[in-house]
Specification:
Order of helices and strands: EHEEEEHE
Low-confidence stretches: none
Helix content: 10-25%
Strand content: 35-45%
Mean pLDDT: 91
Number of strands: 6
CATH topology: Alpha-Beta Plaits
CATH superfamily: Dimeric alpha+beta barrel
Largest sheet: 4 strands, antiparallel
Oligomer: single chain
Distance between the termini: 10 Å
CATH class: Alpha Beta
Number of domains: 1
Number of helices: 2
Shape: globular
Amino acid sequence: MPQFLLLNYLPVDGGPPADEAADQHQRWQRFAQDLVDAGMLISNTGLKGPDAATTVRIRGGETQITDGPFAETKEYLAGYFLIEAPDLDAALKHAEQMPSATWGSVEVRPSWG
């Protein structure tokens, strides 16, 4: 079965209001459990924010290490779900259910192979 990454992007300036935190936590748990129950979840992890990133580049044979992300952006990659789905349409339907789709964005990308 094809695999898809559901890449979770959040706005740099924050997410939902703090008073919705408990509801959002429950929505994330329900979303992840729905994927498990459907037998689609392969892997899931969250990522620390861009301020925790270190970027490595090799230019002209020299290694350059820079604290922070590669470029400034309005959204950052906050985590992912790797799922198995019969096709892109099915993966997109699950992406629509991600709680952060209402204030951030979800990129759906098929894996090679």
